[in-house]
Amino acid sequence: MTGYLKLVSLCLALSVIGCKVSPPSALERAVAKQVKQKITVRGKDDVNPLPPTLENIKAGQQAFSHYCMVCHGLDGQNTGVPFADRMSPPVPPLSSRDVQGYKDGQLKWIIDNGIFPSGMPASKGILNDEEIWQIVHYIRHLPPNGSLGEPAVYTGEPERHADDGRENRVRKSENGRAKRPNQPGS
């Protein structure tokens, strides 16, 4: 338990130091990696109940483009995300060996709960289980080399979905939660 408390204390100190503008040091990256490995063990035995169909992968891509693209880029490789390597810890490419090494249930747990002390927010109450499992399928089917281009959010143009032409925008509903444009009452 003492080792765990030391690790948490070190992480808290590094998160304060992480407010700087330069890329994280090798020590910060190593500590963040160790913390992630210790914290994200939950969900290891959970199995994705959805089949990896084209429909589920595309639905995962749609949800990913609404909620995850701003930090991970369209392709999950941080393409065009100017701050991804400046965060502490840096935003990982989602096709990396570290991320792909997680079990599906662990990825769902990470999306559900976020990762402290990183900038990865929790999505509980924003995404439902089906959407999260679809995002997991999309992450499993990402291109390996960042080939989807720069997100329009960084080019000044509204993001348009090729399949339906809707703009990729999230707004607040009456209760203050994030709401996608295609939800009832939009």
Task: Note the topology.
Blueprint: H1 2-17, H2 26-39, H3 54-67, H4 69-72, H5 97-100, H6 104-113, H7 129-140, E1 171-172, E2 178-179
Antiparallel strand pairs: 1-2
Helix pairs in contact: 1-2, 3-7, 6-7
Describe this structure in words.
The protein has 186 residues and is mostly helical. The radius of gyration is 17 Å and the shape is globular. The protein is 40% helix and 2% strand. Strands 1-2 form a two-stranded antiparallel sheet. The model is unreliable at 16-20 and 161-186 (pLDDT under 50). The chain has seven helices and two strands; from the N terminus they run H-H-H-H-H-H-H-E-E. A hairpin with a 5-residue loop joins strand 1 (171-172) and strand 2 (178-179). The termini are far apart. It has one domain (2-179): Cytochrome c-like domain (Cytochrome Bc1 Complex, Chain D, domain 2, Orthogonal Bundle). The chain has helices at residues 2-17, 26-39, 54-67, 69-72, 97-100, 104-113, 129-140, and strands at 171-172, 178-179.
Which secondary-structure class do the elements indicate?
Answer: mainly alpha
The first-to-last residue Cα distance is 49 Å
The largest sheet, given as strand count, sense and whether it forms a barrel, is: 2 strands, antiparallel
Q: Could you give the order of the helices and strands?
A: HHHHHHHEE
- Kindly report the average pLDDT value: 72
